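Quick log. Single chain, no ligands specified.
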Amino acid sequence: EGPPDEAAGFEAAAPLVDAEAELVEALSANTTCKALDLSATGLTDSAVQQLAVALAVTSRCPQLCALDLRGNPAISAMGETVAQGLCRLRTGLQVSLGDGFDPMSTKFVH
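-> predicted structure:
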């Protein structure tokens, strides 16, 4: 396990909307995070959209290579499709979302 700044976990202690905004802001300025574990944090499709917007620009959180979104049942097919788009925009990013998630699928999830 590397230094603490190489992997980040996030627990939504604040109201989720505030926490999502704070996370997106922090990721936009981060230059050292390599893995981000957001599993089982109550994320929604909206949160995945915000993350995708923030991370689509490769200069934001440039070392990020692993994003764990598993265990968030409020992420629907729409959120999966957004996550797939993010994987295509950031070719070195591995997103974990659960069984059956194909990050490189060219089909919309339904």
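The radius of gyration is 13 Å.
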